[in-house]
Amino acid sequence: MTTPPTPRGALIAIEGLDRAGKSTQCDLLLNRLISSGIPAKLQKFPDRSTPIGHMINSYLTSTSNLDDQAIHLLFSANRWEAKDSILSTLNSGTTILLDRYIYSGIVFSAAKPPVPVENPKPLSVSWCKAPDVGLPRPDIIIFLNISQEDAEKRAGFGDERYEKKEMQEKVRKLFEELRGEDSNDKEDWWVVNAGGTVEEVAEEVWRGVLEALKRVKEGNGEVRSI
Ligand code: Z5A
Ligand code: MG
Q1: 18 CB less than 6 Å from ligand 1?
Q2: What is the mean pLDDT of the chain?
């Protein structure tokens, strides 16, 4: 008698604007999945623990400066170095929660104000997307949507490089464009109102998770690529 192969885990990306509650919801979700008997693991991007992650951390905390293209490629490389581990974890039957993924990568780089002389144009969305092509594609992207007013009521911005109001407004607009851009990708996005209480948001997020688990169950077992 042969044992049926272990069904793969789901790849669930949690994205959203700053202070939308992504990390709060990832922690709750991880506990809820595990206590429901679903093996799960959290993978945060940027992963500041690797050598590439150390370079990203120095840049974000403004202890080093890098060309806009160079830091963009480092954020992407930080995902590529996790790719094999993501795939083997999914194929062993464990669900992965991604706290930010390629979508933050695209919008934060494309939202940057151009540097006047050396780099007079903003980085285009298509340029920003290119280095991530081939990475594992999430079964769902749960997008925590929060108004500027609600976000401002939460704990204040830190001192990191991108935590400025003008940048956040551009990021909001680019996320909206990204969600509406390609009709093939539309079903990947699960938009949640993140302006409610932590518990209210967690319930909406959980519905997205159930949808992702259903998609995996009904799928052919393969992890798609970006
Ligand atoms: N970045 C990039 O440029 N390129 C890339 O490829 C990637 C990222 C992957 C650091 O990211 C920066 O890297 C980020 C994007 C850029 N730049 N910015 N700005 P990060 O993930 O390390 O950022 P973070 O420090 O974790 O912040 P965050 O992600 O923006 O926050 P959050 O995770 O969404 O929120 P939170 O920490 O869960 O909650 C924020 C506060 O609100 C906290 O006090 C909570 O207790 C509170 N909270 C949470 N939920 C609620 C509700 N429902 N009600 C009231 N209060 C709440
Ligand atoms: Mg966070």
Answers
A1: yes
A2: 91
